[in-house]
# Entry
Amino acid sequence: MLRSRAARFLALSPCGRGCPSEARAGEGSEYREALTPHPARARYRSARSTLSHKGRGKARFLLALGLFIGFATQASAQDNYPSRPITLIVPYAAGGSIDLVARILAEGLTARLNQTVVVEDKPGGNGVIGIGAVVKAKPDGYTLQMGAVGANVTPAAVQKDYPFDPLRDYVPVAMVAEWSAILVVKKDLPVKSLAEFVAYARARPNALNFGTTGYGSFAHLVSEVFMQQTGIAMQHVQYKGGAPATTDLMAGTIDAHMMSSAVGAGHAENPLLKMLAVASPRRLPSIRNVPTMAEAGVTGVDQTAWLCVFGPPGLPDAIRERIAREVVAIAQEPAFQAKFRNTGFEPLGLDATASARMYRDEVVRWSAFIKERGLAEKGR
# Structure
């Protein structure tokens, strides 16, 4: 009963603290006693208040200490990076273009970082398995991915249930190298030049077919650009890689193929193939006798693909910039430039800021092109 009255008094009191002098008439002395703090009770309350303040202060101190230690540990880990081997994941089978560049880069990074960089091929799900391993990895710089436009950009635009967002789920670290595609036809096709091929295909709408390394791949996109610029129409034949497409082209099973410059470098003298033009702004060092599309009379098909190192979301800027600096340095070394060029790639070596800007532009550009050509609807 006394507690009830005290609570009611605290609610009614103008000073809000239950002053005894404000007790109403008729309430009696026991009411005033209930509101008057007992000396022992007052000392207990004072001690409890002091301990409470000290406890809150201690909690705040421990929290601040924990945050400081966490930040200091993270900063120390970044300063000492790398202190153990790094895994560079390739989301496709060994032997392809991405794997080839990854191994050249791993060699350079191992020497410059004084730490082993291991290339691990994780094929499956059109790149989803390998990319997923990086997306889910701890953002400490020890799990990275070697990616490309056909692996990290276009799948999100053409596949309805693609699980990753190219602008959210992985971080571009450094552009490593670029490559282009070569329009190659089977030896029995009665054409000797790009102009003759265009004329031949225009006279036979949808009669010819072309092979690519998959729906939404760079080879597929360049083929679509080529058909758009020339006004021809061909049937699309998809393969799981460049090797089976090249095999079928040599056998005459398909008529044409936008072959990667890396694969083309090894077939420059192949009598079973005819290389008509390269879809790049300049001739390729590995096949200098093959003209560019523009030189051969077709404009607007100057397309190059890139290979980029990616990291998981949340990768610290310090680590991202460290890796990018080493990639830039490797791309500028004459020995590694020769290795890239001998395999059909052109060293690029962009820093972290330039790589992020270029990557975002590529996502926007190719997504718009896919929508314009209606490729998203066909791919779904």
User: Anything to note?
Assistant: The first helix runs from residue 2 to 12. Residues 86-179+305-379 form a domain with the D-Maltodextrin-Binding Protein; domain 2 fold (CATH 3.40.190.150). The chain has 15 helices and eleven strands. The CA atoms of residues 31 and 163 lie 70 Å apart.
